[in-house]
Write a structure and sequence with these properties.
Keywords: Signal. The protein has 123 residues and is α+β, with helices and mostly antiparallel strands. The chain has a domain of 72 residues. It has three helices and eight strands, in the order αββββββαββα. The strands form three sheets. The protein has a four-stranded antiparallel sheet. The chain has a two-stranded antiparallel sheet with strand order 1-2. A two-stranded antiparallel sheet has the order 7-8.
Length: 123
Amino acid sequence: MNTLRLRTALGLAFIATISGTMPLTATATQPYPPSTKPSVQVGPTASYRYPTDTPGAGLIDKDGSFHVQQSAALYGANDVREWAFLTGNTFDDLIPDKDLNTATNPANPQDRNDDTRGAAITR
């Protein structure tokens, strides 16, 4: 069997395993009541409303809230460079997280999530 066929077969076997027979659950450092325990489910594909040049990475905060962190780092001298945070129950119902998106470093207010270039210094 050539390498491409082997990789394809292994990939399909992995997808079949995780999509139908092996439940995926995420656990947090703090115990949660069973009704609020985070979980991961595979369903039909949907469009992603907030694409940037880096894929969003999901995370569960210590309070149990679900967030996605991604960045935008366009290449022109005046283009956006920022961390973008989204929150919701699933990837399908995410909305921008205004508090995290506008957060600043208390020790240096010019270090901001919504402008990582230090634009406050150069403008």
